[in-house]
Amino acid sequence: MNFKKIYIGKMIKEKVTENEINIFRICNFFKCTVGEVEKMYEAQSLDCEILLKWSKLLEYDFFRIYTHHLILYSPPSKGKVSIESSLPKFRKNIYTKEMIDFILERIDGGKMTRNQIIERYKIPKTTLFKWIDKYKIKKDNNNNNNNNNNNNNI
């Protein structure tokens, strides 16, 4: 999944196909025509209210795609003093399996160092090392299982 360039219409169409949702159900839900639905599939971006409806219909959080983009590609803050706000403050970043895999692939592929990951994506050092330990263990276990299976076949 490419979080840098988001074409939300394509992603919605993919999810509709995966869920095998009938076009007439979609038209009924949105109170629109087939042509209007097709235009949404071609759109790079959609109004938040429409995206919220798609999220409900397809039972998938399309907003999280934009959250991932912000986590991965927003410029780092320059140590600004935080101003009190009436908006909710989120205490944690949301890291999905896809994001963790993306970050660990950067390290495994030698594209970025651990320190570069911590600096660029603002991931706490302890979190990154926990991911490395957790997913390295899983990889090692999978490799051991494969080796054991190969030895049993001999």
The termini sit apart by 39 Å
Sequence stretches where pLDDT stays below 50 over 5 or more residues: 148-152
Structural classification:
mainly alpha
**How would a textbook summarize the main sheet?**
none
Number of helices: 8
Using the alpha-carbon principal axes, give the shape: elongated
Cα-based radius of gyration, to the nearest Å: 21 Å
Fraction of residues in helices? 55-70%
Provide mean pLDDT, rounded.
82
What is the H/E string?
Answer: HHHHHHHH
How many beta strands in the DSSP annotation?
A: 0
Strand content: under 5%
Defining traits:
elongated; mainly alpha; 154 residues; disordered C terminus
Report on this model:
- The chain is built from 8 helices and no strands.
- It has 154 residues and is mostly helical.
- Helix 1 packs across helix 3.
- The radius of gyration is 21 Å and the shape is elongated.
